[in-house]
Amino acid sequence: MRLSLQQLETFYWAARLGGFHAAARHQHLTQPTISARIQELEEQLGVRLFEREHGRCELTIDGQDALVHAERMLQLADEFGRLGQRRDPMRGLLRLGANESTALAGLAELLSRLKSMYDELRIELTVDIGAALSRKMAARELDVAILNDSANARHVIERTMGVSNLHWVAAPSLVGERKVTPEMLASLPVITVSQPSSNHKLVMKWFRSAGVEPQYVSSCNSLATILQLVAAGHGVAVMSPAIMRAEIESGAIQTLIVKPDLEQEKYLVAYQVERRGEGLETVVRMAAEILARNEVVIPPAVYGGR
């Protein structure tokens, strides 16, 4: 009996989601169906793919190797299924997503340059937090996105432009001393982008690396609003100075010097695999150049590719 795409898909989702029950929910199948497909696949391959214990399943060494091959085969199957749908990726509708840092410091220039280069391109724009954009990429609701959060989907290609250029910022009236530690900021109002954003995770990881929990954490999905609150002295936040140059120059906001250093996030351009081509490579290069020039992104040549 030959291997089937159904078996490979079931194996892929069981491995990615960490269990047969989760794979069953995702594929809208019963758990016994999932178990039967995995058992058939193991018998055909002659290896054990999962270690099953206490309702959980973990990949064996053979299973880890098989997952790499399964991802390749499923990606090829996706591409094969779209052979009749190929078109110029830079003509017609392009659904473009961007996080707010990009929107505030470079998106307008990127749109203008794309429209001047590709006069048959229509752009439908979505500005949202990275976690939401990554979900939309995984669900094929966007064609291209500029973000920090990986979509972690086999049909999405991700190119790293560099890392984010984030700093703790505050009004001098709230934080007079620029050199600060987690202990010093923990008692102040902290404002983050709403969970499950990478911004919130980064902030909490920084405090917890020092064994500290901030006392007051507020959340907001608008960087522009966070910026206004910080400038008014209502809290401290982790943001890119690129979106607050006027406030920094006027003295309304200052960047803080912190120990330990913030762990900067990867900045990505993600796109659907069927969109790949020279046009999308142009988008990647253009976005990287604009965001690096505007100091939203620190390119690999500067941070060393760490």
What does this structure look like?
The longest helix has 21 residues, at 61-81. The chain has a 6-stranded mixed sheet with strand order 4-3-5-14-6-15, sandwiched between helices. The chain folds into 3 domains: 5-84, Winged helix-like DNA-binding domain superfamily/Winged helix DNA-binding domain (Arc Repressor Mutant, subunit A, Orthogonal Bundle); 88-164 and 265-303, Periplasmic binding protein-like II (D-Maltodextrin-Binding Protein, domain 2, 3-Layer(aba) Sandwich), CATH 3.40.190.10; 167-258, D-Maltodextrin-Binding Protein, domain 2 (3-Layer(aba) Sandwich), CATH 3.40.190.10. The protein has 13 helices and 15 strands. It is an alpha/beta fold and 306 residues long. It is globular and about 70 Å long.
Q: What is the CATH fold-level name of the largest domain?
A: D-Maltodextrin-Binding Protein, domain 2
Radius of gyration: 23 Å
User: What CATH architecture of the largest domain would you give?
Assistant: 3-Layer(aba) Sandwich
Q: How many structural domains?
A: 3
Strand order of the largest sheet: 4-3-5-14-6-15
What would CATH call the class of the largest domain? Alpha Beta
- On the 0 to 100 scale, the average pLDDT is 89
Largest sheet: 6 strands, mixed
Number of discrete helical segments:
13
Strand content: 15-25%
In the predicted model, the low-confidence regions spanning at least 5 consecutive residues are none
